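Researcher: Let's continue the batch. This sequence belongs to Beta-glucosidase, and it's 465 residues. Same format as the previous ones, please.
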Amino acid sequence: MATSPGRAASTAAAAKDASARFAFPPGFTWGTATAAYQIEGAVKADGRGESIWDVYAHTPGKIVDGATGDVADDSYHRYPEDIALMRSLGVGAYRFSVAWPRIFPQGTGQPNPKGVDYYKRFVDALHAAGIEPYCTLYHWDLPEALQRKGGWQNRDTAKAFADYAGYMAGQLDGRVQHFMTMNEISTFIGNGYGGTAMAPGLGLKGQALQQARHHALLGHGLAVQAIRAATNAKTKVGSAEGIDAPMPAFDAPEHVAAARKAAVEENAGYLTAMHTGRYTDLYLKTLGADAPKFTPEDMRIIGSKTDFQGLNIYTGNYYIAADNERGYEAVPFPSSYPNMRSSWIQFAPDAMYWGPKLMAEALGISDIYITENGTSSTAAPDAEGRVLDIDRVMFLRQYLGELQRGIVDGAPVRGYFLWSLLDNFEWSRGYSERFGITYVDFATQKRTPKLSSQFYRDVIAGNAI
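Model: Same format as before. Here are the C-alpha coordinates for Beta-glucosidase:
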Protein backbone atom coordinates (compact mmCIF):
# COMPACT_ATOMS: atom_id res chain seq x y z
CA MET A 1 0.00 0.00 0.00
CA ALA A 2 1.42 3.38 -1.02
CA THR A 3 1.79 6.17 1.55
CA SER A 4 0.82 9.70 0.63
CA PRO A 5 3.45 12.47 1.01
CA GLY A 6 1.30 14.16 3.63
CA ARG A 7 0.97 11.01 5.70
CA ALA A 8 4.72 10.32 5.40
CA ALA A 9 5.54 13.82 6.63
CA SER A 10 3.12 13.40 9.52
CA THR A 11 4.68 10.07 10.47
CA ALA A 12 8.20 11.56 10.37
CA ALA A 13 7.10 14.48 12.54
CA ALA A 14 5.49 12.11 15.03
CA ALA A 15 8.68 10.05 15.18
CA LYS A 16 10.74 13.19 15.76
CA ASP A 17 8.38 14.28 18.56
CA ALA A 18 8.60 10.83 20.16
CA SER A 19 12.39 11.00 20.04
CA ALA A 20 12.34 14.45 21.65
CA ARG A 21 10.20 13.13 24.51
CA PHE A 22 12.93 10.65 25.41
CA ALA A 23 15.85 13.07 25.03
CA PHE A 24 17.99 14.26 27.92
CA PRO A 25 18.78 17.96 28.42
CA PRO A 26 21.58 19.53 26.35
CA GLY A 27 24.86 19.30 28.24
CA PHE A 28 23.71 16.36 30.37
CA THR A 29 26.74 14.62 31.93
CA TRP A 30 27.21 10.96 31.00
CA GLY A 31 29.78 9.02 32.97
CA THR A 32 30.75 5.78 34.59
CA ALA A 33 32.04 4.98 38.06
CA THR A 34 34.42 2.78 40.03
CA ALA A 35 36.06 2.66 43.49
CA ALA A 36 39.72 2.33 44.40
CA TYR A 37 39.74 -0.92 46.38
CA GLN A 38 37.43 -2.59 43.88
CA ILE A 39 39.64 -2.03 40.82
CA GLU A 40 43.12 -0.74 41.61
CA GLY A 41 44.92 -3.76 43.08
CA ALA A 42 48.58 -2.95 43.74
CA VAL A 43 47.85 -2.93 47.47
CA LYS A 44 51.53 -2.74 48.45
CA ALA A 45 52.77 -0.56 45.59
CA ASP A 46 54.46 2.82 46.02
CA GLY A 47 54.08 3.12 49.78
CA ARG A 48 50.35 2.40 50.08
CA GLY A 49 49.32 1.60 53.64
CA GLU A 50 46.96 -1.12 54.81
CA SER A 51 43.21 -0.52 54.81
CA ILE A 52 40.41 -2.16 56.75
CA TRP A 53 39.43 -3.98 53.55
CA ASP A 54 42.89 -5.51 53.21
CA VAL A 55 42.50 -6.93 56.70
CA TYR A 56 38.86 -7.98 56.26
CA ALA A 57 39.39 -9.64 52.88
CA HIS A 58 42.28 -11.69 54.25
CA THR A 59 40.18 -12.93 57.17
CA PRO A 60 39.07 -16.51 56.42
CA GLY A 61 35.37 -16.89 55.68
CA LYS A 62 34.60 -13.22 55.05
CA ILE A 63 34.66 -13.14 51.23
CA VAL A 64 33.10 -15.55 48.74
CA ASP A 65 35.77 -18.00 47.50
CA GLY A 66 38.37 -16.31 49.71
CA ALA A 67 38.81 -13.52 47.15
CA THR A 68 40.70 -10.30 47.90
CA GLY A 69 41.29 -6.96 46.20
CA ASP A 70 45.06 -7.52 46.10
CA VAL A 71 45.03 -7.50 42.27
CA ALA A 72 41.38 -6.91 41.30
CA ASP A 73 41.43 -5.26 37.84
CA ASP A 74 45.04 -4.10 38.27
CA SER A 75 43.76 -0.70 37.19
CA TYR A 76 46.57 0.98 39.14
CA HIS A 77 48.85 -0.16 36.32
CA ARG A 78 46.30 -0.55 33.51
CA TYR A 79 44.46 2.75 33.77
CA PRO A 80 45.51 3.87 30.24
CA GLU A 81 43.63 0.85 28.90
CA ASP A 82 40.61 1.69 31.03
CA ILE A 83 40.62 5.31 29.89
CA ALA A 84 40.66 4.03 26.30
CA LEU A 85 37.51 2.04 27.13
CA MET A 86 35.88 5.23 28.39
CA ARG A 87 36.81 7.07 25.22
CA SER A 88 35.24 4.33 23.12
CA LEU A 89 32.03 4.74 25.14
CA GLY A 90 32.03 8.47 24.60
CA VAL A 91 31.60 9.32 28.30
CA GLY A 92 32.31 12.88 29.30
CA ALA A 93 33.02 12.15 32.96
CA TYR A 94 34.45 9.49 35.25
CA ARG A 95 33.79 9.05 38.95
CA PHE A 96 36.72 7.45 40.76
CA SER A 97 37.89 7.33 44.36
CA VAL A 98 41.21 8.13 45.95
CA ALA A 99 42.56 5.45 48.28
CA TRP A 100 43.14 7.23 51.60
CA PRO A 101 45.95 4.74 52.53
CA ARG A 102 47.85 5.69 49.36
CA ILE A 103 48.00 9.30 50.53
CA PHE A 104 48.40 8.85 54.29
CA PRO A 105 49.52 5.25 54.89
CA GLN A 106 48.88 5.63 58.63
CA GLY A 107 45.78 7.76 58.15
CA THR A 108 47.55 10.90 59.41
CA GLY A 109 51.09 12.25 59.51
CA GLN A 110 53.32 12.72 56.51
CA PRO A 111 51.72 12.34 53.05
CA ASN A 112 53.08 9.77 50.62
CA PRO A 113 54.33 11.69 47.54
CA LYS A 114 54.17 8.62 45.28
CA GLY A 115 50.47 8.21 46.03
CA VAL A 116 49.75 11.87 45.38
CA ASP A 117 51.74 11.83 42.13
CA TYR A 118 49.84 8.74 40.94
CA TYR A 119 46.46 10.46 41.15
CA LYS A 120 47.81 13.60 39.51
CA ARG A 121 49.05 11.52 36.56
CA PHE A 122 45.76 9.67 36.41
CA VAL A 123 43.65 12.84 36.42
CA ASP A 124 45.90 14.41 33.78
CA ALA A 125 45.39 11.32 31.60
CA LEU A 126 41.62 11.71 31.95
CA HIS A 127 41.83 15.34 30.85
CA ALA A 128 44.00 14.38 27.88
CA ALA A 129 41.22 12.01 26.81
CA GLY A 130 38.56 14.72 27.17
CA ILE A 131 37.03 13.14 30.29
CA GLU A 132 36.12 15.22 33.34
CA PRO A 133 37.17 13.68 36.69
CA TYR A 134 34.69 13.48 39.56
CA CYS A 135 36.63 12.52 42.70
CA THR A 136 35.30 10.65 45.72
CA LEU A 137 37.64 11.02 48.67
CA TYR A 138 36.37 8.12 50.78
CA HIS A 139 34.93 4.92 49.32
CA TRP A 140 35.24 2.73 52.42
CA ASP A 141 39.01 2.01 52.52
CA LEU A 142 39.76 3.45 55.97
CA PRO A 143 43.45 3.17 56.91
CA GLU A 144 43.82 0.21 59.26
CA ALA A 145 45.98 2.32 61.57
CA LEU A 146 42.94 4.49 62.31
CA GLN A 147 40.69 1.49 62.82
CA ARG A 148 43.05 0.27 65.52
CA LYS A 149 42.29 3.55 67.29
CA GLY A 150 38.55 2.98 67.02
CA GLY A 151 37.79 3.95 63.43
CA TRP A 152 34.52 5.87 63.10
CA GLN A 153 33.73 5.15 66.74
CA ASN A 154 36.53 7.59 67.53
CA ARG A 155 35.61 11.24 67.01
CA ASP A 156 39.23 11.96 66.05
CA THR A 157 38.69 10.01 62.81
CA ALA A 158 36.35 12.76 61.59
CA LYS A 159 39.13 15.31 62.01
CA ALA A 160 41.70 12.98 60.40
CA PHE A 161 39.39 12.54 57.42
CA ALA A 162 38.93 16.29 57.02
CA ASP A 163 42.70 16.82 57.14
CA TYR A 164 43.21 14.17 54.44
CA ALA A 165 40.31 15.46 52.30
CA GLY A 166 41.52 19.06 52.45
CA TYR A 167 45.08 18.05 51.64
CA MET A 168 44.15 15.85 48.68
CA ALA A 169 41.65 18.35 47.29
CA GLY A 170 44.35 21.00 47.47
CA GLN A 171 46.75 18.76 45.58
CA LEU A 172 44.15 18.24 42.84
CA ASP A 173 42.93 21.84 42.81
CA GLY A 174 42.60 23.03 39.22
CA ARG A 175 42.62 19.43 37.99
CA VAL A 176 39.32 18.37 39.61
CA GLN A 177 36.24 20.57 39.87
CA HIS A 178 33.84 18.11 41.51
CA PHE A 179 34.66 16.45 44.83
CA MET A 180 32.52 14.04 46.82
CA THR A 181 33.44 13.65 50.46
CA MET A 182 32.18 10.11 51.06
CA ASN A 183 30.32 7.28 49.41
CA GLU A 184 27.29 5.79 51.16
CA ILE A 185 27.76 6.50 54.84
CA SER A 186 24.58 4.49 55.34
CA THR A 187 26.26 1.38 53.89
CA PHE A 188 29.71 1.44 55.44
CA ILE A 189 28.24 2.27 58.85
CA GLY A 190 25.22 -0.02 58.59
CA ASN A 191 27.00 -3.06 57.14
CA GLY A 192 30.52 -2.53 58.44
CA TYR A 193 29.88 -1.17 61.93
CA GLY A 194 26.31 -2.30 62.54
CA GLY A 195 26.77 -5.58 60.68
CA THR A 196 29.49 -8.08 59.89
CA ALA A 197 29.08 -8.34 56.10
CA MET A 198 31.55 -5.52 55.36
CA ALA A 199 34.80 -4.22 56.81
CA PRO A 200 35.50 -3.85 59.67
CA GLY A 201 32.58 -6.20 60.51
CA LEU A 202 31.98 -5.08 64.11
CA GLY A 203 28.29 -5.84 64.62
CA LEU A 204 27.72 -2.87 66.92
CA LYS A 205 24.31 -2.16 68.44
CA GLY A 206 22.54 0.71 70.14
CA GLN A 207 24.23 3.95 71.06
CA ALA A 208 27.71 2.78 70.02
CA LEU A 209 26.49 2.31 66.45
CA GLN A 210 24.66 5.62 66.35
CA GLN A 211 27.72 7.47 67.67
CA ALA A 212 29.88 5.97 64.89
CA ARG A 213 27.28 7.10 62.35
CA HIS A 214 27.29 10.61 63.81
CA HIS A 215 31.09 10.78 63.64
CA ALA A 216 30.99 9.81 59.96
CA LEU A 217 28.48 12.60 59.30
CA LEU A 218 30.71 14.99 61.21
CA GLY A 219 33.65 13.88 59.05
CA HIS A 220 31.61 14.73 55.96
CA GLY A 221 30.82 18.24 57.24
CA LEU A 222 34.38 18.95 58.32
CA ALA A 223 35.62 17.71 54.94
CA VAL A 224 33.25 20.04 53.06
CA GLN A 225 34.80 22.94 54.94
CA ALA A 226 38.35 21.68 54.42
CA ILE A 227 37.85 21.18 50.68
CA ARG A 228 36.45 24.68 50.28
CA ALA A 229 39.40 26.14 52.19
CA ALA A 230 41.90 24.28 50.00
CA THR A 231 40.44 24.87 46.52
CA ASN A 232 39.38 27.64 44.19
CA ALA A 233 35.96 29.25 44.09
CA LYS A 234 34.84 27.18 41.08
CA THR A 235 35.19 23.87 42.94
CA LYS A 236 31.93 22.02 43.56
CA VAL A 237 31.56 19.89 46.70
CA GLY A 238 29.00 17.21 47.48
CA SER A 239 28.66 13.60 48.59
CA ALA A 240 27.33 10.34 47.17
CA GLU A 241 24.74 8.59 49.29
CA GLY A 242 22.77 5.41 48.85
CA ILE A 243 19.21 6.41 49.60
CA ASP A 244 16.07 4.69 50.65
CA ALA A 245 14.49 5.75 47.35
CA PRO A 246 10.84 6.49 48.18
CA MET A 247 8.16 5.43 45.72
CA PRO A 248 4.37 5.70 46.08
CA ALA A 249 2.73 2.32 45.55
CA PHE A 250 0.88 4.15 42.78
CA ASP A 251 0.58 7.85 42.13
CA ALA A 252 -2.57 8.68 44.05
CA PRO A 253 -2.03 12.02 45.81
CA GLU A 254 -2.15 10.53 49.31
CA HIS A 255 0.51 7.92 48.47
CA VAL A 256 2.76 10.51 46.80
CA ALA A 257 2.51 12.63 49.96
CA ALA A 258 3.34 9.56 52.05
CA ALA A 259 6.41 8.81 49.95
CA ARG A 260 7.55 12.43 50.31
CA LYS A 261 7.35 12.08 54.11
CA ALA A 262 9.31 8.85 53.86
CA ALA A 263 12.00 10.67 51.87
CA VAL A 264 12.68 12.76 54.95
CA GLU A 265 12.26 10.25 57.77
CA GLU A 266 13.74 7.12 56.17
CA ASN A 267 16.88 9.09 55.32
CA ALA A 268 16.86 11.08 58.57
CA GLY A 269 20.17 9.74 59.83
CA TYR A 270 22.03 10.73 56.68
CA LEU A 271 20.81 13.00 53.88
CA THR A 272 18.15 14.76 55.91
CA ALA A 273 20.68 15.68 58.59
CA MET A 274 23.23 16.76 55.98
CA HIS A 275 20.77 19.04 54.17
CA THR A 276 18.94 20.47 57.18
CA GLY A 277 21.62 20.50 59.87
CA ARG A 278 19.37 18.68 62.32
CA TYR A 279 18.04 15.28 63.27
CA THR A 280 14.26 15.13 62.98
CA ASP A 281 12.25 14.96 66.20
CA LEU A 282 10.74 11.64 65.16
CA TYR A 283 14.18 10.19 64.42
CA LEU A 284 15.54 11.12 67.84
CA LYS A 285 12.33 9.91 69.52
CA THR A 286 12.62 6.56 67.73
CA LEU A 287 16.25 6.13 68.80
CA GLY A 288 15.52 7.10 72.40
CA ALA A 289 18.47 6.28 74.65
CA ASP A 290 20.43 5.05 71.62
CA ALA A 291 20.57 8.55 70.06
CA PRO A 292 24.09 9.89 69.50
CA LYS A 293 25.57 12.56 71.71
CA PHE A 294 26.03 15.77 69.74
CA THR A 295 26.28 19.52 70.07
CA PRO A 296 24.63 22.34 68.12
CA GLU A 297 28.06 23.03 66.60
CA ASP A 298 28.23 19.41 65.38
CA MET A 299 24.95 19.86 63.54
CA ARG A 300 26.01 23.18 62.06
CA ILE A 301 29.11 21.46 60.65
CA ILE A 302 27.15 18.44 59.38
CA GLY A 303 24.80 20.86 57.61
CA SER A 304 27.65 22.66 55.79
CA LYS A 305 26.31 23.80 52.44
CA THR A 306 27.09 21.58 49.48
CA ASP A 307 26.81 22.32 45.76
CA PHE A 308 25.28 19.06 44.60
CA GLN A 309 24.05 15.72 45.88
CA GLY A 310 25.04 12.37 44.43
CA LEU A 311 22.39 9.66 44.72
CA ASN A 312 23.21 5.97 44.31
CA ILE A 313 19.99 4.31 43.16
CA TYR A 314 19.63 0.60 42.47
CA THR A 315 16.20 -0.09 43.92
CA GLY A 316 13.69 1.54 46.24
CA ASN A 317 10.82 0.99 48.63
CA TYR A 318 7.12 1.49 48.04
CA TYR A 319 4.98 3.46 50.49
CA ILE A 320 1.29 4.01 51.11
CA ALA A 321 -0.49 6.56 53.27
CA ALA A 322 -1.16 5.37 56.80
CA ASP A 323 -2.95 6.66 59.89
CA ASN A 324 0.08 6.53 62.17
CA GLU A 325 2.69 8.86 63.62
CA ARG A 326 4.76 8.77 60.43
CA GLY A 327 1.88 9.22 58.02
CA TYR A 328 3.17 6.41 55.82
CA GLU A 329 3.72 2.67 55.75
CA ALA A 330 6.24 0.63 53.77
CA VAL A 331 4.81 -2.00 51.44
CA PRO A 332 6.90 -5.20 51.70
CA PHE A 333 8.06 -6.89 48.53
CA PRO A 334 6.20 -10.20 48.11
CA SER A 335 8.27 -13.27 47.31
CA SER A 336 7.00 -13.11 43.72
CA TYR A 337 8.49 -9.64 43.17
CA PRO A 338 11.27 -9.75 40.53
CA ASN A 339 14.87 -9.05 41.44
CA MET A 340 18.14 -9.00 39.54
CA ARG A 341 21.18 -11.29 39.93
CA SER A 342 22.01 -9.62 43.24
CA SER A 343 19.07 -10.49 45.47
CA TRP A 344 19.07 -7.04 47.10
CA ILE A 345 18.29 -5.33 43.79
CA GLN A 346 14.53 -5.53 43.42
CA PHE A 347 13.65 -4.43 39.90
CA ALA A 348 12.14 -1.01 40.58
CA PRO A 349 12.64 1.50 37.74
CA ASP A 350 10.14 3.78 39.53
CA ALA A 351 12.92 4.52 42.02
CA MET A 352 14.74 6.50 39.35
CA TYR A 353 11.69 8.67 38.73
CA TRP A 354 10.50 9.21 42.29
CA GLY A 355 13.80 9.09 44.21
CA PRO A 356 15.46 12.23 42.78
CA LYS A 357 12.16 14.06 42.43
CA LEU A 358 10.97 13.56 46.00
CA MET A 359 14.40 13.99 47.61
CA ALA A 360 14.80 17.32 45.79
CA GLU A 361 11.32 18.48 46.81
CA ALA A 362 11.56 17.34 50.41
CA LEU A 363 15.09 18.60 51.13
CA GLY A 364 15.39 21.55 48.75
CA ILE A 365 18.21 20.00 46.69
CA SER A 366 18.88 21.98 43.50
CA ASP A 367 21.50 19.83 41.73
CA ILE A 368 21.56 16.03 41.69
CA TYR A 369 23.81 13.51 39.99
CA ILE A 370 22.99 9.83 39.82
CA THR A 371 26.41 8.72 41.03
CA GLU A 372 25.71 4.99 40.81
CA ASN A 373 23.14 2.87 38.99
CA GLY A 374 23.51 -0.56 37.47
CA THR A 375 23.05 -4.25 38.11
CA SER A 376 24.90 -7.53 38.29
CA SER A 377 24.45 -10.22 35.65
CA THR A 378 25.53 -13.81 35.10
CA ALA A 379 26.19 -13.25 31.38
CA ALA A 380 29.55 -14.74 30.32
CA PRO A 381 31.45 -14.92 27.03
CA ASP A 382 29.78 -17.16 24.45
CA ALA A 383 31.55 -19.30 21.85
CA GLU A 384 32.30 -16.17 19.82
CA GLY A 385 33.60 -14.23 22.81
CA ARG A 386 30.54 -12.01 23.04
CA VAL A 387 28.92 -11.11 26.40
CA LEU A 388 25.24 -10.67 25.66
CA ASP A 389 24.00 -9.27 28.96
CA ILE A 390 20.49 -8.51 27.77
CA ASP A 391 19.26 -8.46 31.39
CA ARG A 392 21.49 -5.45 32.12
CA VAL A 393 20.38 -3.76 28.87
CA MET A 394 16.77 -4.22 29.95
CA PHE A 395 17.54 -2.85 33.41
CA LEU A 396 19.37 0.22 32.11
CA ARG A 397 16.77 0.96 29.45
CA GLN A 398 13.95 0.96 31.99
CA TYR A 399 15.79 2.91 34.70
CA LEU A 400 17.10 5.51 32.26
CA GLY A 401 13.64 5.87 30.77
CA GLU A 402 12.27 6.68 34.22
CA LEU A 403 15.13 9.07 34.88
CA GLN A 404 14.38 10.94 31.67
CA ARG A 405 10.70 11.10 32.59
CA GLY A 406 11.60 12.47 36.02
CA ILE A 407 13.81 15.18 34.53
CA VAL A 408 10.99 16.24 32.21
CA ASP A 409 8.77 16.47 35.31
CA GLY A 410 11.23 18.71 37.13
CA ALA A 411 13.78 16.47 38.88
CA PRO A 412 17.04 18.53 38.93
CA VAL A 413 19.33 15.72 37.73
CA ARG A 414 22.42 17.02 35.90
CA GLY A 415 24.25 13.78 35.14
CA TYR A 416 24.39 9.99 35.38
CA PHE A 417 27.27 7.66 36.27
CA LEU A 418 26.76 4.02 35.37
CA TRP A 419 28.05 1.44 37.85
CA SER A 420 30.36 0.10 36.69
CA LEU A 421 32.93 0.49 33.94
CA LEU A 422 34.50 -2.88 34.81
CA ASP A 423 33.66 -6.14 36.49
CA ASN A 424 35.43 -5.78 39.82
CA PHE A 425 35.83 -6.89 43.42
CA GLU A 426 32.26 -6.79 44.70
CA TRP A 427 33.05 -6.48 48.41
CA SER A 428 31.96 -9.54 50.41
CA ARG A 429 30.71 -11.19 47.20
CA GLY A 430 34.25 -11.19 45.81
CA TYR A 431 34.22 -11.88 42.07
CA SER A 432 31.00 -13.90 42.13
CA GLU A 433 28.82 -10.96 41.05
CA ARG A 434 29.71 -8.88 38.01
CA PHE A 435 28.46 -5.28 37.70
CA GLY A 436 30.62 -4.14 34.81
CA ILE A 437 29.63 -3.22 31.28
CA THR A 438 33.11 -4.52 30.45
CA TYR A 439 33.83 -8.20 31.08
CA VAL A 440 37.13 -8.81 32.84
CA ASP A 441 38.95 -12.14 32.70
CA PHE A 442 40.66 -11.87 36.08
CA ALA A 443 43.26 -14.51 35.13
CA THR A 444 44.50 -12.57 32.10
CA GLN A 445 43.06 -9.07 32.78
CA LYS A 446 41.59 -9.06 29.26
CA ARG A 447 38.76 -6.51 28.96
CA THR A 448 35.79 -7.27 26.68
CA PRO A 449 32.97 -4.73 26.22
CA LYS A 450 29.56 -6.33 26.75
CA LEU A 451 26.31 -5.77 24.88
CA SER A 452 25.37 -3.27 27.60
CA SER A 453 28.47 -1.26 26.72
CA GLN A 454 27.20 -0.92 23.15
CA PHE A 455 23.78 0.10 24.46
CA TYR A 456 25.25 2.75 26.75
CA ARG A 457 27.50 4.06 23.97
CA ASP A 458 24.43 4.59 21.78
CA VAL A 459 22.53 6.33 24.58
CA ILE A 460 25.43 8.74 25.10
CA ALA A 461 25.84 9.38 21.37
CA GLY A 462 22.17 10.28 21.00
CA ASN A 463 21.74 11.88 24.44
CA ALA A 464 18.48 9.98 24.50
CA ILE A 465 16.74 6.69 25.16
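Researcher: Any comment?
Model: Confidence is low (pLDDT under 50) at residues 1-11.
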